[in-house]
Protein: Fatty acid--CoA ligase family protein
Organism: Agromyces neolithicus
Amino acid sequence: MSLNLLLKDALTATPDKSALVFDDAFISYRALADTIERSARGLLSLGVAHGDRVAIFMRNRWEFVELYLACFRIGAIAVPLNHRFQTDEVVFAIDHCAAKLLIVDGPLLPVVEHVGEASPSLTGVYVYGDAPEGTANRWPDVVGAAPEVTDWPTVVDDDPAMILYTSGSTGKPKGVTHTHRSILASASGRVATQQLTADDVSLAATAICHAGASVGVAFPTLLAGGTVVILAESDPGLFLDALRTQRPTRTILLPAQLLDAVVDPRAKVVDFGCLREVQCGGDQISPDLYAEFAKVTDLELNQLYGLTECEGATMNPSFGVIKRGSIGVPRVGVEARIVTAAEHTAGEDVAVGKTGEIWIRGDSVMTGYWNDLEHTAATFVDGWLRTGDLGSCDDDGYLFFQGRIKEIIIKGGSNIAPGEVEDVLDAHPDVELSGVVGTPDARLGSLVHAFVELKHGLAAPPTEADLKAFAAERLAAYKVPDRWTFVTDLPRNKVGKIDRHALHARAIELDAA
């Protein structure tokens, strides 16, 4: 079935029950279905057809879910953009997928003010939410003027539904493409694995533009007929307030986000007893986090593993044995293997306890990278997705994350491609070459360390502050390097490429100094 049936059971059984909660506003299943249909009519009135891409650039708010489902209703493809993106990043994604429309949150309008002129595929930029007086192209006006629809487009399981941009090991983000089938498989797999019911209240505490909060929290909960509480931002105070006022039963958090919440002095007086399960992923969980979490609740923290290509692929059983340090077992609908890490081979399973690459398979896995046959072909082997992550398996079938094959940097749960940061730094007129690596950080998992080789003979070489400001204009804030080291010559390997192993070693030395 297509995602158009996501709300079907709840609409029949409990139409007046709260489907979404945001900023203390409650939206029933009936009201949500109505707004979805009206926004779907608005899309059709603007000429959006089956298969067209609709970019959504918004912060967390309940309308984000509405727009997802409105796109699904007519077979359009939702393209959620990270709300931390800067203009160049938005333009890249829009151009790469040839988006037809951009719908933007009012406060983010300055970031995309001239995107319509820069991106030829766009036929319009529309504003949803608070915006300056006199702003044109307001989404509510489009919806209000849209005519009734009697002949809705036909949508089938294998139609693309979402393109999520994520940083890979290359210099530019890749468009992870999910179909109605893969998203529904993820949602139903979570419902079965976590035993979600209509009584569950799930807290979407991370960015709804990412797979974790949308595919991992919102869609499974709506499928089960539960209630989704959406936080405006990842703030420990908002999280603790939600525990007190909304009494959620489930949530997924990033390690740094959860640590900030449980060490907050307010956590001592908040009752965590409403929670039946807290899942944590996106990075390694430190012993400190386990210890601090145990101070505020008797729950055992559930570590999970997933990626944009397959959300929530493995997790500790919701009502079974949780092993600290383990990323659990494959959830319903997913298979996993630990395979010898060799390029473009069928791979052989490694022995129990040995380290290899994590491979996964199932209907929840993406269909490929948008307009990128080369990387899609390199990622799949005989139907298995090569994750680029290393792991091992114990005698009970529990998996353990052991590191990454790729050079990707994971900072606070967000992927950062070194090449993307290097491309920006290398564009500075005074930079000869740059090399970027991740360096360990107890709270965020990793920080971004930039090694910069300036052009020789500069009369007034740029400072760290100069380069930081240059990067901040072109990259989302979390991608801007945290640490800077100026070098006379960057280390290179035998074929003349940047020697990242040497940079990693140098970063470790500097951290220890």
